[in-house]
Amino acid sequence: MIDDRPLGRHQPLFVIAGPCVIESRNDAMAIARHLAKVATSLDLLLIFKASFDKANRTSESSYRGPGLVEGLDILSEIRSETKLPILTDVHSPEQVPQVAEVVDVLQIPAFLCRQTDLIQAAARTGKCLNIKKGQFLSPHEMAAVARKAREAGAEKIWLCERGSSFGYNNLVVDMRSLDIMAETGLPVVFDATHSVQLPGAGGTHSSGERRFVSVLARAAVAARISGVFMEVHPDPDNALSDGPNSLKLDDLEPLLHELKAIDRTVKANLA
């Protein structure tokens, strides 16, 4: 439950949206204000996401973010002004207590989803966890990841599909995974933007196929997921991180309007 709204496969779709990384205080705030208006217009639970540090960039010279202290200050300001719940990644157990003081949802990155110390530290905060399925894991294996978090004290856990490695520099989404992970009884989130990423395909950076974001998002919502995750940017072609797979900010509201209609239809007869 976030903002007193129940979440789950039988509940209305919720949305996680925001830039891949905080590029500046002003840019992040402008995006958050836009998203707050979208959430109000469509009457959707929308959680703002942004990273303070992208710790797994392809190149050591790639932009990583403002860092922990400044990043958390920016996220705190966004939460205070827009009243949107906040999600961000954690990369080490040492970061967790400080981050948990600011955000509503702690995200475990896909590459780190088997890191026991990190999951246990996040679980002990009592915060909601969004655990991304590693590109190298089957959906069945996420039951063990969830159990690890539960045994450490987590009560609010979401499992997030973000594509599976398919040869070199490519990902594929097996829609069966959404149903398989839902068998855990936990809310399942679909990451529509990282699922179209082409990891490392740009040489010194990852590439992506933005045109497929809406296709996969519609398919996943039709499979009765609980939430959809999308990274957005006002000018994705000039974004400092994950631009090729980010959705243009102005394209988000029309797509969410479609997704909300699909969600309402497929859940209409559920008890």
Structural notes for this entry:
It is a single chain. The protein has one domain: Aldolase class I (TIM Barrel, Alpha-Beta Barrel). The strands form three sheets. It has an eight-stranded parallel β-barrel, surrounded by six helices. A two-stranded antiparallel ribbon has the order 7-8. With 271 residues, the chain is of the alpha/beta class. It has eight helices and 13 strands. It is globular and about 45 Å long.
* Unreliable spans: none
Mean pLDDT, as a whole number? 94
CATH topology: TIM Barrel
CATH superfamily label: Aldolase class I
The top level CATH class name: Alpha Beta
Classify the beta-strand content into a percent band. 15-25%
Topology record:
Elements: E1 14-18, H1 25-42, E2 46-49, H2 68-82, E3 86-89, H3 96-100, E4 105-108, H4 116-124, E5 128-132, H5 142-151, E6 157-161, E7 164-165, E8 171-172, H6 176-182, E9 188-191, E10 197-198, E11 207-208, H7 213-222, E12 227-233, E13 247-248, H8 252-266
Parallel strand pairs: 1-2, 1-12, 2-3, 3-4, 4-5, 5-6, 6-9, 9-12, 12-13
Antiparallel strand pairs: 7-8, 10-11
Helix pairs in contact: 1-2, 4-5, 7-8
In short:
The chain has 271 residues and is α/β, with parallel strands linked by helices. The chain has helices spanning 25-42, 68-82, 96-100, 116-124, 142-151, 176-182, 213-222, 252-266, and strands spanning 14-18, 46-49, 86-89, 105-108, 128-132, 157-161, 164-165, 171-172, 188-191, 197-198, 207-208, 227-233, 247-248.
